[in-house]
Amino acid sequence: MTSSSLVPGADTTRQFGRRQPIGAGHVMLAVILALGAGLRLWGVRFGLPHDLARPDEEKIIGAALGIVQGDPNPHMFLYPSLFIYANAAAYWLLFILERAMGTIANRAEFLAAAAADPAVFHSSAARWGVSLAWRRLASCTRAGASCFPGG
User: Residue of 50, 90, 98, 137 with fewest CB within 10 Å of its CB?
Assistant: First the structure.
């Protein structure tokens, strides 16, 4: 039984390698994604350098820095753990980069720098949030487009 017999009138043939013309739907999608990213990026540096102006990120940063210190348990489950681990991975990469450039010598110096000037960590957490929100918006629009392929 072919898939075309399951849905009367369905055309299941696909032509790979042929580009579809850019229509109004594609333009609207690009506008929505650009607007969504712009609105999220607009507030990335809100409240800096005052680190307590954004208490949610303060908790996430503290848990992520605890993971960088060597404790894989975030000890806080008010927020999704994956986001905390993603921030910890970003901070770990930042540590490796700064160590390679010679600006810090060890993890203790890195954590002391984080306590002295947390603005880099706040903006990093906010940028991760923007990136994930933009990807979520893009995947929702892809899912919607697959549900309604003609429109």
Answer: 50
Domain membership of residue 109 (yes or no) is: yes
Full residue range of the structural domain in which residue 126 is found: 54-70+79-141
22: left (phi over 0), alpha (psi -120 to 50) or beta: beta
Q: What Å distances lie between residue 140 and 36, 37, 136, CA to CA?
A: 13, 14, 6
Contacts of 147 (CB under 8 A, 6+ apart): none
Cis bond upstream, residue 118 (ω within 30): no
Q: Supply the pTM of this predicted model.
A: 0.62
Please report, for the chain, how many H helices and E strands are present, in that order. Answer: 6, 0
pLDDT tens across 99-140, in order?
999 888 888 898 888 888 777 777 777 777 777 777 887 788
